[in-house]
Amino acid sequence: MQLADTGDVVSPTGIFGAQPNPTVWVPLVTGGLALLLVLSGSPWRLARNVVTIVHEAGHALVAVLAGRRLQGIQLHSDTSGVTVSRGRPSGPGMVLTSLAGYPAPAVLGLGFAGLLAANRITVLLAVAALLLLGVLVMVRNAYGVLSVVLTAAGLAVLALIAGPQVQAWFVYLITWFLLFGGIRPVCELQRKRRRGAARDSDADQLARLTGVPAALWLLILVVIAVTCLVVGGTWLLEPALQS
After folding, report:
1. What percent of the chain has pLDDT over 90?
2. Among 50, 68, 95, 166, which is least packed by CB within 10 angstroms?
């Protein structure tokens, strides 16, 4: 999975070609920056829109795969979101759809980490573009459209104008952000539930659908997110660990 470091510049070979290995500082610095961003105040509230987009995309994708009829997605300025699908109000399809949202950022981050470990930066950018296009088609409110379009515009600028080194820094940063950002929303949900709020959350819906307590579902969500972080982080840090 590693390219030999000969000191030469390796040209990408199409969208599925491998890019050169980044320097060891790229995963280390971007990991630290992503962690600071997730632990921050106002910057996190702005960046959390990306997590919400992925969260709702997770609901939407699994709803379609489970045979439900997707009605639309709404993204709100308070970084909340709603995905509406039609089908049986109970059963495995509804359970999987309800479960898919919170793990989606960490799972996507894990997938991105696998692509970066294989030096497939161009493929990663293409996957991100397809994800945003799919969400944009299904968004049903003005703020949601604006949020997705601005995110897509930033991605387009990166893909069309930025050089390979800048792209590497950005994709490592967004991958770390998804991995770390998959944990904080679950913790925030638990704090809200402790205050008696968010009683119609995904975890509470899962509890009503399955009879399993919401607290146990929250634990499952945390375990999934932490596992993705550990595995994905190991892949991202591989160049540094081998140096």
Report:
1. 69
2. 166
